[in-house]
Amino acid sequence: MRPSVFIAPAVATLVGFAGTLVLVIAAANAVGASPAQTSSWVASLCIATALASLTLSWRLRMPIICAWSTPGAALIAASHGITMEAAVGAFMLTGLLIVLTGAVKPIGNLIARIPTSVASAMLAGILVKFVLAIFEQAQAVPALVFPLLAVFLIVRLISPIWAVLSVLAAGLILSGLLGMNGAWPDGLAIAPWVFVAPRFEPTVLIGLGLPLYLVTMASQNLPGLAVLKADGYDAPARPIFILTGLLSAASALACAHTSNLAAISAAITTGPDTHPDKAERWKAGMVYGCLWVAIGLLGASSVALFASMPAALVATVAGVALIGSLTGSLSFALAHDKDRFAALMTFVVTASGLSLFGIGAAFWGLAAGLIVLALDRFAARMRHGGAR
Prior knowledge:
By secondary structure, the chain is mainly alpha-helical. The protein contains 17 helices and 2 strands. Strands 1-2 form a two-stranded antiparallel ribbon. The longest helix is centred in the middle third of the chain and has 29 residues, at 202-230. The mean pLDDT is 84.
């Protein structure tokens, strides 16, 4: 048990929780969650993440690092006109679809066939709004936002992982000096668990539940498996998807959205810096899970702390936290010439906020991209046949 077996998961926990909690709170606000429901949302996500990491790390003897779906939170935060009950129904659908992906091999194969370019473009269309919000807030509160951007740009040259946390810490100090903070929470509070009965509305299931499933698979679960493989672990997808899907469906009843494999947090924990012997790194997964239990029990205090922050600070932290994901998504989306136009259509339709028949833009962006891609490939086959 080297010190790094404790240090690496502690850093991963801090990055995964503090760096993206603001997005979860924004998602809760978008669907009209009450303060108690928001606390329950955060606490349930933490406990689901902990249970998945502890169980899988112990059974598989691998450092299986789980997290909440950050792009999923961004997707929910960008939605409009969805009630908490309908959102819970969509969250349950997402969890069950992840279970089916692990249990039914053809479904997993079908998801794997969705072009990376189109899936990445859909994610980029969701994320770009949050990055643009930084500069909307910069125009309104330049004394707060521009110094935080400078902190981000400088710290990322040294350590991209710590850049977002540096912005959060500097923002709390600067907003306090500017007199912009609200009342801070009094002490630590145990998070309540709030049950919400799901309502299964077809438009929300299609417009939120299905895109949430797709971005979670494409941006979290599949990259998470790739991180494990890169560090020498042949992790079985079936038990991972079934367990995380079941936990997601169950925690949805306490307001939480999806739990899944981590990618960035996993990269911090699964490599040789944690332990030179890869057979011993599973212990870091156990430490990681225990830390998430502790954080989950104090979810109410975390939510109260972020609620005291000014809107400009929240938007800035969320935006800089997603710049890396946006960069990666755009890079994948536009990497291949033959898919580039379809990816661009996916991106612009998703970013437009188009809503038809009560179904949100993420679904229509994906549909537009797949239709354009199908037409392009059909035309290419026709040209190839005509050339013969």
